[in-house]
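Quick start: what a row looks like.
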Amino acid sequence: CRFQRLDFVYLNAGIMPNPHVNFKALWHGLLSGRLLHMLTTAEGVMTQTDRLNGDGLQEVFATNLFGHFILVRQLESLLCGNEKPSRVIWTSSSNARESAFSLSDYQHAKGQESYSSSKYATDLTSVVLNRKFNKQGLYSSVVCPGLVMTNMTYKILPVFLWMLLMPIMWLIRFFAKTYTLTPYNGAEAHVWLFKQKPEQLDALVKYHSCTSGLGKCYVEPRKMDVDEETAEKFYQQLLELEKQTLEKYQDLLD
């Protein structure tokens, strides 16, 4: 109601309920030489226990993706058709993996990697938004803030254990540049994107916040492992779910 256009919308809300570390998987990772990869992406290491929210949707899917999708759709008239491009920037993750996502269970009701699934779904959604709306001046990007110590992270292990591990994590950063550790460092890609011309960005790239072992922050673009046909099919499912949701709450919207 107050504005004729929006220049930027940062979509950052996220949850990871009841995360558990698979120490057996970590041990196997050490023996197989995949430990650094697992520590960087949390692949095979993290599981979560999801639940339904008050709307009857899986809570992680609703918070990490669908609420954002509804918001973007509602703001479409302010984001499209302006003199200057508008930007939508999603906080994704290096933990976004195709193996955790399924079109037949896109809310991830049956699995234990709801966070991974929701972040891969975020990548899919961004790809389709660019395909459909770039010509109308709306551009979408996804970023990964790296491993940042926040309230979400502190739920994975007790705080005192994180404090004991912190010196080791500082050492790991010499080999795993996505160990940004602080929210300030993690925001590097968000700020960097603010300064870029969206027409020159690759719609199939995720922009990762990185920090060198000596503490220098920079951004690293990485091609996303996204199937564009799957992305389109998923987008259509989101539109159908949006329709059902808006019909359910039509009285409130009126």
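That is the whole record. Residues 147 and 179 are 5 Å apart (CA to CA). Strands lie at 8-11, 20-21, 46-47, 86-91, 138-144, 205-211, 217-223.
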